[in-house]
Specification:
By secondary structure, the chain is mostly helical. 70% of the residues lie in helices and 0% in strands. Helix 5 packs across helix 8. The protein is globular. The N terminus is likely disordered.
Length: 177
């Protein structure tokens, strides 16, 4: 195959990433889906929805205020780590689909939305916040439907967030780190 053809149809994991984004981005043609994706993207920007959830948990659940605040700190910390990794890796965002949303930066790996979402799912899920894991999953999928991340970006971000929260779980619940 010639070079031009290889660029248009990447192979291997990169090719699979491209095809999945194209298929999921097509779901965003439905205005209801597009509206939900835009809302999830806005809510997840800089981990805002998770910061709000953690602070609300600290206000409502006074007995475990410290755990909620430490869980919030873990979530924010995971997000910050993902931003640092993104600046080192510098993978460009998908260019073969029209994005549904604007982005703060032009780098894609890992998805910071997915990182903070997974960290919140693990941290706040451990505190009994049952609505957080499904909302976190929706935020992760929304990044694909929005056309601003590859599946491997989202998977890596989710793994980074879950690992960060899991590593900090003992500290979060008041035990030694």
């Amino acid at each position: 195959m010639d070079d031009h053809h290889d660029l248009a149809h990447p192979r291997g994991l990169h090719g699979l990433d491209h095809r999945i984004v194209a298929v999921l981005r097509a779901c965003g043609r439905d205005p209801r889906v597009a509206g939900a994706v835009r809302s999830l993207s806005w809510a997840g920007e800089h981990g805002a929805v998770w910061l709000a959830a953690g602070l609300a948990g600290a206000v409502v659940d006074r007995a475990r205020r410290g755990a909620w605040l430490r869980g919030t700190a873990l979530t924010v910390g995971a997000h910050a780590v993902s931003v640092g990794v993104k600046r080192v890796v510098r993978r460009p965002r998908p260019a073969h689909v029209e994005p549904l949303v604007g982005t703060v930066g032009r780098h894609s790996f890992p998805s910071s939305h997915a990182t903070s979402a997974a960290a919140a799912a693990v941290a706040f899920g451990a505190l009994g916040a049952r609505a957080v894991p499904p909302l976190a999953a929706a935020v992760c999928v929304s990044r694909l439907v929005a056309g601003v991340h590859y599946p491997s970006d989202v998977a890596a971000g989710a793994a980074l967030g879950a690992l960060t929260a899991r590593l900090g779980a003992r500290w979060m619940t008041g035990g030694p780190a």
